């Protein structure tokens, strides 16, 4: 295949555009924010789970406190009823029974009030734990939102670069002869890098030095001859300078 040397050198612009587009894709896949988002999402979920555990423990104890408060109120109401009955008078046996019941109620009330005080102290501690857990969730969610915003900004920048370079690439490719462009695309599909500048004896595509015989063949080829690297198959673009 033959092509004007100046046209062949346009392949380097095309290869550079493709390299830029590949870097954009690599950058998109390897944004540090992507890994950070995964880590922070797991942290958010863990803190949400901790909050649920804290809220459940608080809810259970809060119900226990209300139960004890109700029992204390019931004992007090029973005590007041017995005192009212004693004030109204009655037989000696009735009064003795009421006195005995009042003593029992007093002991029961004392036990319940001690249990209630302990439960309320525990509830206060658990309520503080719920508050801390909720604040931890909010902080983690804010951190996640911040990283997602950075990711979105980086992706938007990459999209702009990709769109611009694709447009530039399309213009370059359209300006090439169809057969040369087709050869380039075929090599790119097979090898990845389809063209490179011959730098001394080194292929600019694969960075491997050509052996003496291959190098002589390239140098002896006509300027408009499309030559390829024997190592990677890429089109070798000669600079046009003597001996290159």
From TrEMBL:
The keyword Coiled coil applies. Residues 202-236 form the C4-type zinc ribbon domain. Residues 14-192 form the CT398-like coiled coil hairpin domain. Residues 51-164 form a coiled coil. Keywords: Coiled coil. InterPro entries: CT398_CC_hairpin, Oxidative_Scav/Glycosyltrans, Zf-RING_7. It comes from the Bacteria. Pfam families: CT398_CC, Zn_ribbon_9. PANTHER family: PHOSPHOLIPASE C-BETA-2-RELATED, SCAVENGER RECEPTOR CLASS A MEMBER 3. This is C4-type zinc ribbon domain-containing protein. It comes from Saccharopolyspora thermophila.
């Amino acid at each position: 295949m033959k092509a004007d040397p100046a046209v062949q050198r346009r392949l380097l612009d095309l290869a550079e555009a493709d390299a830029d587009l590949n870097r954009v894709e690599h950058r998109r896949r390897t944004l540090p924010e992507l890994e950070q988002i995964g880590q922070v999402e797991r942290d958010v979920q863990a803190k949400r789970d901790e909050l649920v555990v804290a809220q459940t423990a608080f809810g259970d104890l809060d119900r226990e406190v209300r139960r004890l408060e109700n029992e204390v109120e019931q004992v007090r109401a029973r005590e007041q009823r017995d005192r009212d009955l004693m004030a109204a008078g009655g037989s000696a046996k009735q009064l003795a029974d009421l006195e005995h019941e009042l003593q029992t109620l007093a002991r029961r009330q004392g036990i319940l009030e001690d249990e209630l005080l302990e439960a309320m102290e525990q509830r206060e501690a658990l309520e503080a734990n719920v508050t801390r857990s909720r604040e931890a969730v909010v902080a983690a969610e804010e951190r996640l939102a911040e990283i997602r915003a950075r990711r979105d900004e980086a992706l938007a920048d990459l999209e702009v670069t990709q769109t611009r370079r694709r447009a530039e690439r399309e213009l370059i490719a359209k300006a090439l002869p169809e057969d040369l462009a087709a050869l380039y695309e075929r090599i790119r599909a097979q090898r990845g890098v389809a063209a490179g500048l011959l730098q001394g004896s080194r292929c600019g595509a694969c960075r491997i030095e050509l052996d003496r015989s291959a190098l002589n063949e390239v140098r002896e080829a006509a300027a408009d001859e499309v030559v390829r690297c024997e190592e990677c198959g890429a089109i070798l673009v000669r600079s046009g300078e003597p001996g290159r």
